[in-house]
Amino acid sequence: MRPFFHCEGINDSKLLTAEERDHYYECILDGAEAWGVGIVEVDEIDRVGVGRAARWAMGIALHQLRRRIDYLLVDGFLLPEALVPQLPIVKGDSRSISIMSGGILAKVTRDRLMARFAGQFPGYGFETHKGYPTPEHLHAMDRHGLSPLHRRSFISIRDRAALEAAAYAGATNGPEPRD
After folding, report:
1. What percent of the chain shows pLDDT beyond 90?
2. CA separation for the pair 11, 8 (Å, rounded)
3. Where does residue 58 rank: exposed (0-12), middle (13-18), buried (19+ CB within 10 A)?
4. 143 to 11, 59, 106, 124, 160: CA distances (angstroms)
5. How far, CA to CA in Å, does 92 sit from each of 11, 95, 114, 119, 147?
6. Rg of the chain taking only CA atoms, in angstroms
7. pLDDT for the residue 120
8. Burial of residue 110, with CB atoms counted within 10 A of its CB: 0-12 exposed, 13-18 middle, 19 or more buried
9. 121 Cα distance to chain centroid
10. pLDDT score for 144
11. Cross-strand partners of 75
12. Is residue 61 scored above 80 in pLDDT?
C-alpha cells in the first residue's frame, strides 16, 4: 500500500456487505503500489489441503507484485515459503489495514469468479451464495449433483461425493447384494 493509505471504514472483509467490499476494492486498487491475487484450482486444494493451498495462493499473489518486498504481514501464521522478514498477526484481518486490504481483494475476486461460474453451471445459485454451504446451495447439490467446482474434500461435499459414487457404482454394477 502507498504510505499513508487511508480508506475510511475499511474493515475485515467478513464484516462488510458485498457493496461495501466492492467500494473498498476500488479504494484499495487506487491506494496500492502493487497488488496480486493468487488462485488455486479446486483439484489442487483437494490434493494438498486448504492450508497448503492458501499458502500457495499467497505465494502466487506475492509473485504477481513483481517487486521486492521489504516486510510481510500475514494473518495469524508465518509464510515460510516467502523468504522475507515477516510478522504473523493474530486476527490480522481486523487489526492491520494491509491484511484487511488483502482479504477484501481476495474475497471480491472470489465472489466475481463465482458469479461468472454461475453462467457455466446454472441451477446451483453460485451468483447468490458464492459457493458457501447455504441451505439453498446444499439443496442445489441434491438436485444437480456435484459440479467440477465442488471440493470433494469438504466434509459435506465428501459425503455427497461418496453417495454419488455409490449410486453410480450401483447403477453400473447392478443392485448391491443384501444380507
Report:
1. 66
2. 9
3. buried
4. 37, 37, 30, 9, 11
5. 11, 5, 25, 35, 33
6. 20
7. 96
8. middle
9. 18
10. 92
11. 89
12. yes
Q: In this structure, which topology does domain 1-120 adopt according to CATH?
A: Nucleotidyltransferase; domain 5 (3.30.420)
- On the CB side of 157, CA atoms within 13 Å amount to 16
Supply the pLDDT for residue 80. 86
Per-residue pLDDT tens over the stretch 163-178 = 667 666 665 554 444 4
Beta bridge partners of residue 72, listed in sequence order: 86
Residue for cell digits 449410486? 167
Cβ neighbourhood burial of 16 (10 Å; 0-12, 13-18, 19+): buried
- Cell output for 91: 486476527
Per the model's pLDDT, the better-predicted residue between 178 and 60 turns out to be 60
pLDDT recorded at residue 179: 42
Alpha-carbon distances of 149 from 57, 75, 152, 172, rounded to whole Å: 17, 26, 9, 25
Q: Who contacts 105 (Cβ-Cβ below 8 Å, separation ≥6)?
A: 25, 28, 35, 37
For every residue of 92-116, which 3-state class applies, written as one string? HHHCCHHHHHHHHHHHHHHHHHHHH
Boundaries of every domain in the chain:
1-120, 123-179
Taking CA 43 as the corner, what is the angle to CA 159 and CA 65, rounded to the nearest 5 degrees? Answer: 135
